[in-house]
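I hope you will forgive my troubling you with a question about protein structure. I am sending you one protein, given as its amino acid sequence and as whole-number tokens for its backbone shapes. Thank you for your consideration; the sequence and its tokens are set out here:
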Amino acid sequence: MKKLNNLIKPIVEKSGYELYHLEFVKEGGEDYLRVYIDNEQGIILDDCVKVNKLVSEALDVEDLIKDFYYLEISSPGIERVLHNDRHLQKYMGFNVKIKLKNLVKGKKKLEGILEGFDEENVVINLEEEEISLNRNNIITISLKGEY
């Protein structure tokens, strides 16, 4: 993944976007390289098409993935997963959904306002009560879409 990231990130950034997340997954027996891009104005289809062409050309030249795969370029979406500290910092004060491995307050899913974080914990405001969640207990944190 590091080689893929090192190849793709400069292409995305030179095109005027942020590389939000990169993943290589197997679904239904097929391999997918998913490149999530973002910028302050949001992402439209033309942005994805532009980045797809550039990334596809670079991947063909470098030949880092030997087996057949599908390349997908996408926006992280309104209910985007927050993957790292940079994402957590950007969305402080936003409503989030958190999926947990073990029960907290009798639940494995919590919704609240992202209040803070450090190396070990993420803090949310849950109905006027601050709750500190150990990162090892967190499966995913995503924005709660406001419709």
User: Anything to note?
Assistant: The radius of gyration is 17 Å.
